[in-house]
Amino acid sequence: MRFFPRNSSSRAAVVDMTPLIDIVFQLLIFFLVTGQAAQQARTELALPKEPGREVNTTEQAGVVLNVLADGSIIVNENAVSLERVGELVAEAAAQTEGGVTKLRPLVRADRGARTDVLNSVLERLSQAGVVAVRVATEGASK
Fold first, then answer.
1. Burial 104-121, CB ≥16 within 10 A → b, else e
2. Do 77 and 116 fall into the same domain?
3. Residue 37 lies in a domain
4. Which of 39, 54, 72, 116 has the largest count of CB atoms under 10 Å?
5. Which helix (H) or strand (E) holds 108?
6. Do residue 76 and residue 130 come from a single domain?
7. Are 24 and 32 in contact (CB under 8 A)?
8. What is the pLDDT of residues 50-105, one digit of tens each?
9. Strands 64-67, 73-75: parallel, antiparallel or unpaired by DSSP?
10. Per-residue confidence at 23, pLDDT binned at 50, 70, 90?
11. Is this structure's pTM higher than 0.90?
């Protein structure tokens, strides 16, 4: 009874790397495309130059409100009226664990935006029950 073949060196294991390479290329393409889409979705603003407080942790904003220099308000690439801000906060609060008290919207106001529009947006957020708002700034140059 012979359990081992005479020439064991002729039986080499062949590893096919093609599926692994295909998956790596697909992941690379996926991350490149989603990275470009994320850059295009962000509204270009000249943010105020203030040192602010640097936060190292990332946190989900829930709602990002962009106040442009011409006074228009952009949410998710759509222009919205000041009256609709409260409705958007209510929709975002329904999707947030903890409701409106845990919602921390991000307000990105252009450096040239009128302060009365910004104050009206912040007032609407307060009326909707939001207790904390984050305001985006550009770090001051040192």
1. bbbbbbbeebeeebbebb
2. yes
3. yes
4. 72
5. strand 106-109
6. yes
7. no
8. 666 666 665 665 788 888 888 888 887 788 888 888 888 888 888 777 777 778 88
9. antiparallel
10. very high
11. no
